[in-house]
Amino acid sequence: MKDSDEKEKKLRKDIGKAYGDYVKQFTPSPAYVSNGIKAFLVGGLICTAAFWLQKRLQDGGMSETDAGAFVTILLVVSAQLLTGLGVFDSLAKFAGAGVIVPITGFANSMVAPAIEYKKEGPVLGVGSKLFTVAGPVLVCGISAAVAVGLIYWMIGRIQGV
Amino acid sequence: MMALKKIGSQSMLFPSGAWIRGRGTVVGKKEGSGPLGSCFDIVLQDDMYGEKSWEKAESKMLKDAMMKAVQRAGLEKENIDVMLSGDLLNQLMSSSFMARDMHIPFLGLYGACSTMTESLVLGSILIDGGFAENVLAGASSHFCTAERQFRLPVEHGNQRPPSAQWTATAAGAVVISGQPPGPGIPRIRAEAATIGRVIDAGIKDANQMGAAMAPAAVDTLLNHLQDTGRGIDYYDLVVSGDLGFIGREIVMDLLVDAGLPSAKVRERYDDCGTMLYTKDQDVHSGGSGCGCSASVFAGHLLQRMEQGELKKVLLMSTGAMLSVISPLQGESIPGIAHAISLEVE
Known about the structure:
The structure holds 2 protein chains of 2 kinds.
Chain A: H1 2-24, H2 32-59, H3 64-84, H4 88-95, H5 97-100, H6 103-116, H7 122-129, H8 134-160
Helix pairs in contact in A: 2-3, 3-6, 6-7
Chain B: E1 6-7, E2 11-13, E3 19-27, H1 29-32, E4 42-43, H2 54-72, E5 82-86, H3 93-102, E6 106-108, H4 115-128, E7 134-141, H5 143-150, E8 166-167, E9 170-177, E10 188-194, H6 209-228, E11 237-240, H7 244-257, H8 262-268, E12 269-271, H9 272-275, E13 287-288, H10 290-306, E14 312-316, E15 318-320, E16 335-337, E17 339-344
Parallel strand pairs in B: 3-4, 5-6, 5-7, 8-13, 11-12, 11-14
Antiparallel strand pairs in B: 1-2, 2-10, 3-9, 3-10, 7-9, 10-17, 14-17, 15-16
Helix pairs in contact in B: 2-3, 6-7
C-alpha cells in the first residue's frame, strides 16, 4: 500500500515536470527589458526628485537628517494619497519595481488593505488585516536584520580577540 | 435498479426532456464594454452596484440574473422548485445570501469556475428524473471579491504576468424546465452530459490557471466523445469555460495529439475566457471565474442558439480546484471540467 502511494507521488511529480516544460512553449514571457527600462526611469525619477528636494531643504538650513526624514514622509504620504485615489495600482502596473521597491511600495501595501478591509469594521477588519501584505515582509526583514546583526557582532568579537 | 440513462464511463442522456426556458445575465462595466457587451441584460455602471461591499454587489448581481431568467421564462418565483447556484467565495457567500432573498428551495454548489455547467447538469438531472418541474441554475463571480479572497487587496500595486487571467465580474442564470417553451419560441434542450474527473497535471503557479485546467477539459471532452460515439464535428461549437488564450492553445494541441483532426478542432472549439474581452482590455490571457462561462453561455451562446446560428453546443465549464491555503502547502492545482450538450430541436 505504502509502496503504491510513493509510486503515485513520484509519477505525479514526473508528470508535473514534463507538463510544466510542455506548457512553457505556449506561455509568453513577461517583457523583462521594457519593464526594466520603465522601472529604471520612473524609480530613478522619483529618487532624483526626492534627492533634489532634500538638497534644497538642506540649502535652506535644514540638517541632513531632518531633510531626509521630511522627504521620506513626503514620499510615503504621496503614495498613500495616490492609493486612496485609486491611481497607485495603475502607476505600479506601468512602473513595476520602480514604485514598488522604494518606500512608496511599502506605503501602498499598508493603505491598500486598510481600504479593502474597512467593510469588516475598524478593529477586526482593518485592525487584523492591516499588515497582511507588509507583515510578512516586516517579519522576514527584521529577522534577517537581527541574524545579520548577530553575525556582524560575532565577527567583531573574533577580530577583537 | 439499472442506471438506464448512463452511457459509457461517465456520461448520461436526458431522454425525458429538459428545456432551457429563460436566461438572465448581469455583468460589470469592463465586461459590458467587451465584444459581447450588447448580449447582456444588465451592464453595471459601477461594479459596487449601489451596495456597501463587493460581496453584497456580487450577490445582488446573481439575484438579478436569476430574476431576469425567471421573468424571461414567463414564470413566477413560486413556480421554481429548486435553485442551484454557486460562486467562488468562502461558504458560497454570494449564492447563500442571494438565496436568503429568494425563498426558493436551494442547493449551493462549489465547482470553482466549473459551477455553471455543474448547476446545468444537476438541474437537468432533477428535471429529467422527474424530481422538479422548473429548476433555476446559475453562477457568479466578481473581480474584486475574488482578488481580495485569493490574491491581494484591489488597490495593491503589482504587475501580472502574461499568463494571468482576469476574474469576470458577471452572473448568469437559466431556467431549466420539464415543459418545452410555447409555440414560436426556439426549443433548446439539454440532451446529454458528462461529469468530469479531477485531473492534476502538476501546475503550481496560480498565474497559470489555463494550463492547470486544460488537461481536465481535454479528458472530459475525449470521454464525452467516446461515451456518446460522436466526433467533435457533431457540435457546431465546443466551448470551454475559462482557459484563456494560453489554455485554449494547449487544449487544441492536446486534442490534435489525441488524434482529433486539426482543422476541425480549430474550427469547432473555442473558450469563453477568450470571447468575453478583447485583447486590449488588459486581461492578459483572458477571462476566468464562474461568471465567465455563466454569462457567455446565458448571454451570448443561448442567444445565438435562439437565433438559429448554432444548433448543437457543448458547454464545458472548467474549474481550478485550489483553495487559498493549498498552494502555500505546496500543493499543485487540480482541474475539473463538466460538459453539457444542448441542442435546438
